[in-house]
Design brief:
single chain; alpha+beta; 3-stranded antiparallel beta sheet; binds zinc ion
Length: about 50
């Protein structure tokens, strides 16, 4: 079975080591790596609850 899509950070485009789930400003579900979380918070991306 294929793994789900690879979790790449939507901000730095690198493979996210510890991906956090957010919605971007267009309400698209994105993944943000731990290094970019503060950026996501600043952009007011919304956290995706589980
Ligand atoms: Zn990142």
């Amino acid at each position: 079975m294929f793994s789900i899509f690879r979790k790449k950070c939507a901000i730095c485009k690198k493979k996210a080591a510890q991906p956090r789930k957010y919605y971007d400003d267009q309400r698209k579900p994105i993944v943000v790596c731990s290094a970019c979380v503060s950026y996501a918070e600043r952009r007011a991306f919304q956290k995706r609850g589980f």
